[in-house]
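ARCHIVE RECORD
Type: protein–small molecule complex
Small molecule: iron/sulfur cluster
Source of inputs: curated submission
Record status: active
Notes field left blank by submitter.
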Amino acid sequence: MGHIRKQMITLMTSARCNLACVYCSQRSFPALAPGDETIDIAFAEAGMRDFFASNPSRAIRFFGAGEPTLAFEVMKEVRDRARRLAGDALRVELQSNGLFSPEVADWVERHVDILWLSYDGPPEIQDRNRPTRGGGRSSGVVGENLRRFADSDRMQAGIRATVAPSDFPRIVEIVEHFHDLGLRRACLAPVYSSTANVRGERSLGLLEFARHFVRADEAARRMGMSLSTHLIVNFDEPVTGYCRACTPCPHLTTDGWVSCCDETPLGPDYLPGILQDLIYGRWEPEAKSIRYFPEALARIRARNTDNLRRGGCSGCDLIANCSGGCLPKNMFMTGDLFTPYPEWCEAVRYLASRLPRPQGLFPFLHS
Ligand code: SF4
Ligand code: SF4
Ligand code: SF4
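STRUCTURE (tokenized, with ligand):
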């Protein structure tokens, strides 16, 4: 099972954002058309009905091309409709940039079971990487929200941190800062190559990140914390596919498309061409239903451990704990869904030789 056991429908409620992160991939997208900023509530409800009818999971997740809580009224309504559909079994995850008001925080405290806040480290790093839209500091409000939820009894709270290569040498200090805030779970990732972060060389810098991640992991274990990163999400047990994207679990975009992945938070008018392979459905407002694309579904489902073992990952002794790796990150580099990117393999191999595997079930699932 591995990370693929995180079965949830993702509702991308807002494509607008109140931050202006220096590495944000949305910066390279065309300007948003007015109707594409916020999800259609009827679309969200139709998606949840379809998902609950075909999957035993009763979990929903708020995320976005932008900051999901900027569509707060919509989010509240979608959660209430989900509760009517799923009953007491409903579980709610929110993945947010953490720049929200006390009013939103009160709602989060009452209704969210799993909270991931993006936060990059000590204030000078956070404020450099993740300034507000007006160029102000975000560390104060986000830090306050992190402290508020750090030791919540009913909620599992964690930090999602993006680490710039220039900060790799500070990775232990970053994790210690999270510990000082009271957080015990964090997922770290390097700044990935994307259309917004084009580099001169074709590199994701993964091996260098992996070297520093090992140091961070050692420090975290000493402090009683759990760390993760996309390269090791399946080091806990053998997998049938890399993650929920391969099932696929639906991700509903503000402009009315269904994709299988966080990195396709908008439809074809905005996405780089290669990522359009991850889209498999379209909201049809007049019919009030979602039309699914059978060929796209079949292609996505074919991205599983069995097929990769016969194809691009043939002969790899790590396949049971990797399964081809994160779809878009490899697709950006190799141009297709099934061809592994050697740099990804090198970094996974490095980590597999230094971290325990299989580790037994991880205490949390991110992304
Ligand atoms: S919070 Fe996310 S969407 Fe908003 S600017 Fe930062 S990276 Fe982009
Ligand atoms: S970005 Fe990677 S880990 Fe996240 S949903 Fe997509 S394929 Fe899965
Ligand atoms: S070949 Fe590479 S991408 Fe495929 S399973 Fe092995 S390490 Fe992962």
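CURATOR ANNOTATION: The mean pLDDT is 93.
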